[in-house]
Amino acid sequence: GQQLNQSPQSMFIQEGEDVSMNCTSSSIFNTWLWYKQDPGEGPVLLIALYKAGELTSNGRLTAQFGITRKDSFLNISASIPSDVGIYFCAGQDGNKLVFGAGTILRVKS
Amino acid sequence: EAGVAQSPRYKIIEKRQSVAFWCNPISGHATLYWYQQILGQGPKLLIQFQNNGVVDDSQLPKDRFSAERLKGVDSTLKIQPAKLEDSAVYLCASSLLPLSLSEAFFGQGTRLTVV
Q1: How much of chain B exceeds pLDDT 70, in percent?
Q2: Best residue in B4, B7, B45 to probe A by mutation, most A CBs within 10 Å?
Q3: In chain A, N or C terminus with fewer CB closer than 10 Å?
Q4: Share of chain A above pLDDT 70, in %
């Protein structure tokens, strides 16, 4: 089946630092999504990307849809303590979402 | 607007027992999904409903898992009998239209522990 490779697995950064994480796939997706999951909660959509090469921002978050349609990255600028959580990439294939394994982000204040 | 409601929040059962989870989607949302999230992994789709019909259940272990959405609103997911490897968070999500057209919203999940 389709699999997404998400890296890094975890990050422990200083408050104020920028963060970068990425996702690659052996399959092409027409839509890439980035979610954040807080402990005990369901994933919440952060950014959706619909076109190859698209660069989209949502506040301090910026995400890009790779030209090959097989990868995407998410950047968080000037991290704050509430950025702590697990970030998931997901590729959309028709009506199905395929999720990566997640990047655990911890922030030192 | 109320979100996706799930119950119970937590459940501990012994292997070979049965268990059921309940989900009430956002009002008016025609599409409902059940995902399984094993610790350390991303959610994996188990089944997708469009109104009261099944759209995709290709990854549902049908020998032990079943789901229904009889009136096209709330849904139940059942496991019978449970195995140790079924320990996971079971997430319900809903969207106004099929996923390719709109965003899916997730509930808080039910954390199942099988001992």
Answers
A1: 97
A2: B45
A3: N
A4: 98
